[in-house]
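Appendix C: a fully annotated inverse folding record. The material below is reproduced so that readers can follow the format used throughout the book. The structure is listed first as C-alpha cells, followed by the designed sequence.
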C-alpha cells in the first residue's frame, strides 16, 4: 500500500530504514528511563539523583545555542547536493559549522569561566559529586555534541540518514549504559561525566572519519565559509527558534498556567492524561523525521508531485497511529490511568481524554505538513502563527473561574481547538507553497511538478 502511495521504491526504502533506525533510539531511551529510575536514586541517593537530572540539562541548553542553523543548514545542503552543486553544499557546511561552533564555544567559555570562579571553594574529597566540576565536563561534552550533530547532518545530506541516525544513537546508547554501570559500581558525577565525554569524543571522531572517507567534500574548514550564506539562512533559522519556543509554551507553559490558576490536583491529572494521549506521536514522529531529507531532495528536483505523495504517506501513517488510540482512550482512558498510577489518579470525565486525544491527532497532522515545510526551509510561513496560537492557549486557564474537572474540560477543548486551527493553517501554507512552485514550473514549461503519465 505504502509503495503505491510513494511511487519511488528507493525513496520509500530510505524512509523505512530511517524509521527503524530512529526506533532504536526510542527503545534505548525507554530502557534507560526504566532502569535509571531504580538504579540512580538507589546508588546516589534521591538528592544527588535530582542534582544529576539538573546537571544533564546543561548540554541541551548549550546545544540550543546554535540558533536553529543546524537543521536549516542540513535542509539547504540536501537540496544543493541533490542538484549536484557540491561547491554550494560545501559552502553551506563550512559557514554553518563555523557559526555554530563559535556560538557554542562562546557560550561554553562563559559558563566554564563562571564555574571556575566557584571551584576554589570545593573540597577535594567531594570531587565525585561536585556539581561545578561536572558542569565544566558537561559543557565540554556539549561542544563535542554539537560536532556530532553537524556530522550526522552530513549523513542526511548524502542520502545516508538511517546510517547516521543509527551511529549517533549507538553513541548515545553506550553513554547511557555507562551511566548505569558506573553508578552501580559506586562512581559519582565526575567519573560518569568524564566517561561520557570520552565516549562522545571517540564516537564523533569515528562518525566524522567514516563520512569524510565516503564524501570528501564533507571535510570541515573555513576556506569557503561565507557571511552571505549565513544571512541567507537567517530567516528560516529564526523561524526554527520560534517553533522550538512555541513547542516549549505548548508543553510546559500550559501546565504552568494550569498549576497557577487551578488547584494543585489539576496538574497531577492533566499532565499524565496528555502524556498518555501523546504516546502515538512518538511513533508517527519517527516517520516524520525520516521524510525530511526525502522532501528536501524532491523539492530540489522540483518534483512537487512526489512531495505530495510523501506528505500524504506521513499524514496517513499519523492517522493510523493516533485515531485508534484516541478511540481507546475515550472509552477506557480512566481505567488505563488508574492502572498506570496504582489508582492514585482518577479522571472522572472521559471527555477530557477525548479532547486531548483529538488534539494529539491534529498535532500529528500538523507535524506531517510542518516537517515538509521545514525540509524546504519554508517554515517561516507558519512560525509566527504557531507561537501566537500557543501563547493564547497558555492564557486560557487564567480566564476560567472554576478549578474542578469542568475547568480541565474547558482547557482540553481549547487545546483541541488550537491544534485544529494550527493543522488547518500549516496544511494551507504547505498547499500554497507547493501550488506556487507548480505555477512557476508551468510558467517556465518545466515538468518536474507534474505527475508521470
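Designed amino acids, in order:
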Amino acid at each position: 500500500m505504502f509503495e503505491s502511495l510513494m511511487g519511488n521504491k528507493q525513496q520509500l526504502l530510505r524512509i523505512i530504514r530511517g524509521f527503524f533506525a530512529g526506533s532504536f533510539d526510542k527503545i534505548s531511551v525507554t530502557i534507560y528511563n526504566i532502569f535509571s529510575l531504580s538504579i540512580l536514586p538507589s546508588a546516589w541517593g534521591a538528592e544527588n539523583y535530582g542534582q544529576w537530572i539538573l546537571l544533564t540539562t546543561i548540554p541541551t541548553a548549550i546545544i540550543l545555542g546554535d540558533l536553529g542553523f543546524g537543521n536549516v543548514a542540513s535542509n539547504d545542503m540536501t537540496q544543493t547536493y541533490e542538484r549536484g552543486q557540491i561547491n554550494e553544499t560545501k559552502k553551506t557546511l563550512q559557514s554553518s559549522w563555523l557559526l555554530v561552533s563559535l556560538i557554542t564555544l562562546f557560550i561554553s567559555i562563559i559558563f566554564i569561566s563562571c564555574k571556575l570562579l566557584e571551584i576554589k571553594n570545593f573540597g577535594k574529597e567531594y570531587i565525585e559529586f561536585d556539581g561545578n566540576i561536572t558542569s565544566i565536563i558537561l559543557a565540554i561534552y556539549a561542544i563535542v555534541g554539537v560536532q556530532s550533530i553537524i556530522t550526522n547532518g552530513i549523513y542526511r545530506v548524502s542520502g545516508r540518514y538511517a546510517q547516521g541516525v543509527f551511529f549517533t544513537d549507538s553513541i548515545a546508547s553506550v553513554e547511557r549504559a555507562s551511566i548505569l554501570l558506573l553508578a552501580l559500581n559506586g562512581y559519582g558525577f565526575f567519573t560518569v561525566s568524564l566517561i561520557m565525554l570520552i565516549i562522545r569524543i571517540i564516537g564523533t571522531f569515528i562518525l566524522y572519519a567514516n563520512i569524510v572517507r565516503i564524501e570528501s567534500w564533507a571535510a570541515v574548514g573555513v576556506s569557503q565559509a561565507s557571511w552571505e550564506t549565513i544571512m541567507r539562512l537567517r530567516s528560516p533559522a529564526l523561524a526554527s527558534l520560534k517553533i522550538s519556543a512555541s513547542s516549549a509554551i505548548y508543553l510546559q507553559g500550559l501546565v504552568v498556567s494550569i498549576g497557577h490558576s487551578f488547584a494543585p490536583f489539576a496538574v497531577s491529572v492533566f499532565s499524565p492524561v496528555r502524556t498518555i494521549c501523546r504516546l502515538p506521536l512518538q511513533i508517527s514522529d519517527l516517520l516524520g523525521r525520516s521524510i525530511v531529507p526525502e522532501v528536501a531532495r524532491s523539492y530540489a528536483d522540483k518534483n512537487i508531485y512526489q512531495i505530495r505523495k510523501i506528505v500524504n504517506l506521513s499524514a496517513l501513517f499519523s492517522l493510523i497511529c493516533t485515531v485508534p488510540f484516541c478511540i481507546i482512550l475515550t472509552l477506557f482512558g480512566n481505567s488505563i490511568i488508574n492502572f498506570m498510577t496504582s489508582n492514585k489518579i482518577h479522571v472522572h470525565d472521559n471527555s477530557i481524554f477525548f479532547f486531548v486525544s483529538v488534539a494529539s491527532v491534529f498535532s500529528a497532522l500538523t507535524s506531517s505538513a510542518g516537517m515538509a515545510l521545514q525540509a524546504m526551509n519554508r517554515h517561516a510561513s507558519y512560525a509566527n502563527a504557531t507561537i501566537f496560537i500557543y501563547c493564547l492557549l497558555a492564557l486560557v486557564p487564567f480566564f476560567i473561574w472554576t478549578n474542578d474537572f469542568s475547568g480541565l474540560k474547558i482547557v482540553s477543548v481549547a487545546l483541541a481547538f488550537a491544534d485544529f486551527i494550527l493543522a488547518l493553517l500549516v496544511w494551507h501554507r504547505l498547499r500554497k507553497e507547493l501550488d506556487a512552485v507548480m505555477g512557476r514550473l508551468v510558467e517556465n514549461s518545466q515538468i518536474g511538478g507534474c505527475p508521470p503519465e
